[in-house]
Amino acid sequence: MAAAGSPAGPGRAVHIAVVGGDEAEAALLSVAEEVGRRLAQAGAIVVCGGLCGVMEATCRGARAAGGSTVGLLPGTDRGAANPFVDVVLPTGLGEARDALVARAGEAVIALGGGYGTLAEVALALKTGTPVVGLDTWKIDRRGLAGDPIERAGSPAEAVARALELAPRGSAGRAGG
Predict the structure, then answer these.
(1) Which domain does 152 fall in, by range?
(2) pLDDT digits (tens, 9 = 90+) for 142-162
């Protein structure tokens, strides 16, 4: 539970969404596990897509540190969740569940990832939710002031920055 005066406010834990691919290299899975562990140690609730790969590693790390995890599944089968998800929410929305994951966090940490991760990053940015990236997509186009993803060089930096940015995320937005 977040302490009084924490980014999430008195008595409410901050929710950080962690997004990344279901297929990832061992090094990235280790990073994801550390991110989950550090988030749990900071009192944050981990929100993810609830499946394997980066999602499972993040949940494993959070659970090992005594944290709570939420998985928003694309299908309707609760049994599809990885074994480290505490709250399993089968959405039946397929890839459209990416919008729920992006909106559920007060900040998003993106780790590697494929097109699903890119969609979650884009949806988070579109709704004003801050995104911290570690070895993930770079967004660049003419007319864009710069890459809107905050870059981190380590799991510790990614978690610290996400927690710092969280008050400007969904909790502070109208309708968030």
Answers:
(1) 15-160
(2) 888 889 999 999 999 999 999
Please tell me the total count of domains within the chain. Answer: 1
What DSSP line would sit under 12-67, residue for residue? ---EEEEEE-SS--HHHHHHHHHHHHHHHHTTPEEEE--SSTHHHHHHHHHHHTT-
**CATH number, residue 90:** 3.40.50.450
3-state DSSP percent of the chain in helix, strand and coil, to 5 = 40, 15, 45
Element (H, E) at 97: helix 97-104
Angle at 136 between CA 53 and CA 153, to 5 degrees: 105
At 12 the pLDDT is 84
The tens digit of pLDDT for each residue in 39-72 reads 999 999 999 999 999 999 999 999 999 999 999 9
Q: Cβ-count burial of 24 within 10 angstroms (0-12 exposed, 13-18 middle, 19+ buried)?
A: buried
127 pLDDT higher than 50: yes
How far apart are alpha carbons 46 and 37 in whole angstroms?
A: 10
Please tell me the number of Cα atoms within 13 Å of 18 on its side-chain side: 41
